[in-house]
Write a structure and sequence with these properties.
Elements: H1 11-17, H2 31-41, E1 44-45, E2 48-50, E3 53-54, H3 55-67, H4 70-75, H5 93-116, E4 120-122, H6 127-136, H7 140-154, E5 169-172, E6 175-176, E7 188-191, E8 196-199, E9 218-219, H8 221-238, E10 242-244, E11 250-251, E12 264-266, H9 270-293, E13 295-297, E14 302-304, E15 318-319, E16 323-328, E17 337-344, E18 347-348, H10 349-366, H11 377-382, H12 409-428, E19 429-430, E20 435-436, E21 439-440, E22 448-450, H13 451-468, H14 487-507, E23 517-519, E24 523-524, H15 531-548, H16 551-568, E25 569-570, E26 575-576, E27 584-585, H17 587-604, H18 618-634, E28 654-655, E29 686-688, E30 690-691
Antiparallel strand pairs: 1-30, 2-29, 3-6, 4-5, 7-8, 8-28, 9-16, 10-11, 10-12, 13-14, 13-15, 16-17, 18-21, 19-20, 22-23, 23-24, 25-26, 27-29
Length: 693
Amino acid sequence: MKNKPWKVMTAAALMSSLLLTSACTPSEKSAEADKKGKESAANIKVPVIDYTFDTAGNMFAYSEFELSGEPLAESLGLDLDVLDVRKLDKPTKFDYTAGVESYEYSEEAMYEVTEKSGLGLHLIHGPVTAEFAKKTSKPSHEALAERFYELADSVGYPREEIFRNMFPTMIEYASGDPHYVKKVDTEVYAENDDKTYVPVYQVDFQSLRWDRGKMDKVLNPSAYGAVFLKQALWAGDFLGAFHTIDKDEELEAQTPNDDKDENIALGVSSADGMQGMILTEEIWNKLNFVRDRLFYDAKQQALTKAAGSHYDPAKGLVYLPHKITVVENGDELAPNAKELIVEDSRSMLQDQWLMLWPASEFYGMTDQRPANKNQNPAFLAVFDGAPYPSAAKENIDDNPANDVVSNDPYSVNRDVLLQVFKNIDTMHFNNEVGAFVEEHNGIEQGKRVDTFQAGYTIEALRIFERAIDGLPVGYASGEEAQGLNTPEGKRALELIKKQADFIIGQLMRKDGLVANGFVIGEGPDKSEPTLMAQLGAIRGLTAAFLATKNEQYRDAARTIYQAMDKHFWDKQLHVYKTGKDEMKYTPFLAGALSGVFRVAITNLNNAEGDQPLSALERETIISRYVDFYNNIIDGPSLEEGMQASEFWDTGDVYIKGDQSGNTDGDHVPQIQAGHGKYGIAPILVSVEVKKNR
C-alpha cells in the first residue's frame, strides 16, 4: 500500500472511534480503455449469479492474486516505479494487470474484511487486548486505543493520522452480504491540485459497514484461516524491512538493532508499517482465541485448548471443527461472543490446509530459534519485546519436552501450527493408498480423495516444510537456502511425495487430464473432469517439484496444463470452460486459476531441454492471464465481472464534478456506484460466462 497523506484522525477521537456507529461529467477515457471494452464486450456476457461474500473463497483468491501481482511482475523484470495507476494498461497490459489490478484488488479486499465491514468479532474483545486492559486497569476500548498508539510509535506513524471508525476484527465470520447499508460518504475530505479529491470514506470508515443481520455468524477454519493467510502475507511484506523517519525511505535490515537508531523505525514505510502492525495485532489475538477456545475434543465432544508440541493424536483427537456458530452478546457496535456452539464437528481437509498455510507463513515471520540462520533481522526487531513480546526461551531450543504454554506470537502460533500439522497427517492421510482424504468425522476417515483439496494440501505442506526447517517463506518461498532438517520437515516431504505420486499414478487419465477425485475401494471418479480439479493437480505437482526438485512432478504438471488448455479453452470467448458446457466462476476457482498462471509462467513454461508444449510458451500463458483478468475479473461492462467495485488504488480517483462513478473508464465501478442502492465493497462475486448473442 502506498503512503497516503490523508490518513488523518485527531488523537482525542481514537479511543471513541473504535466503538462508534456501525450501522457528472464523465472523465475522458483513454483510447486503450475504449479498445479494451470493445474487444471483450463484443463476445461475452459475465453476469453476477451470487452476491454472497464467501470469506474463505475471497481471501484465498486474493492471496493468490497478491502473489500473482507485484511479486510476479517484478520477477519478470518490471521496474515497479514505472507503474501509474491512472495510466490504464501501461507500460503493457500485463504489467498493469499484475502490478496494479491483481495486487491492489487483493490488498483493498483484505481491509474491507479486517478493518471496515464488521464481518466478525471486534478486536476490543481479543484475548491479548483483555490482558492489556487487565494490566493497565483500563476498559478494553481504552486499552486497545493505547495499544494502537504504541504500535504507531514503533513505526514512526503519527498518532493523529490513524483511521477513524475502524472495526478491527479479532476473528472473521464465514460469509456476509457485501452491499453497504448506508450511503457511502464521498464528500470532499481533502483536495489535490489536479482536481482530484480524497473522499471522507477513505479516512473515516463509518459508512462502510455491512448488514450484521445478513452475516453467517459461523467460525469456519477455511474462512478465518484464509483471512489469516492474507494478513500474514501482507504483514510479512510490510514489516520485512526498516525505514528512515525523516525521509520515509525503505532500508534493508542489517541487524535486529537497526531501529535503535533515532532515525530508523520498523516497517518498510511509516504507513505500511502501521498496517503491518494492525494486521499482526489482529493475528496475535486471533491465534490466542483459536488455540484456547476453538479446538474440539472428539472424546469429550466439547471445545478445548490446543496442546501444540505436547499434542499426541494417539491419546485422543483434538482438532479444528468445521462449523462453530456464534451467539453474540447483542452489542452492535463491538460484538463479542456470548456462546460458541459446535454445529458440525467434522474435520475437513480444506479447513486444515487453510490454517496450515498461514500459520506456516506467520511462523517464518516470528521464528526466533537460534538454530535458524536464515532469519530476517527486521522480523527479529518486531518480536524482540517491543512492540511484540519475544518467544518463551523454552520454546525456541531444540528440546520439545521442556516447552511451556505462552501467549507470545511465536509460541501461540507454533501451538496451532504443530497441532494442525499432526491432525492433517493423522486424520486425513491414508497411509495405505498414500493420499489425503477429504474429511474425518472424529472417529474414522472418509473414503474420498478430492483432487483440488489434495493438490493444495501439497502446497500448504511445502510452505510448512520451509517454515519449520527455517527456509524463507512469503514472497521468497522459492529461494534456495540451507534448512534445519527437522523431523516435522522430513515427514512433510514424505507426505508431499506420496500425494504427488498418487496424483500421477491414480488420478491422471490417458488424455492428460486428472479425475476430479478418487474413492478408496472404488477407484477414480467417472464424472466429467472439471477445471477445478486440473488447477489443484497442477498447483500440487508444481509444489512437489519445488519441494523435492524431482523433475517427474514438473513434467506431470506440464502435461496436465497442456491437456487442460486443449480441453477447456474456448477459442472464441477467450475464457476457460469450468466443466462440461459450463463456465461458472467462483472466488475459489478464480484464485486457483490465478495461482496456476503464476506457476506456469515461472516454473512450467518451456525452457531449455524441455519438449516444447504450445500452451506453455510464456507469451501464451501471459495472454491467458490478461484475458482472464480482462474478461472474467473486470468483465465486459460495469454491471458484469467478478470484481464488484474499486477505488483510488486501482486508478478510480474522485474528481470534483464527475458523477460517472468510473473515472478511469474501465469496467469496474467505484464502490458507491456499483451493484446496489448504496454500492458494494471491492470484493469478488460469483459469475457465469455466456456468449453474447
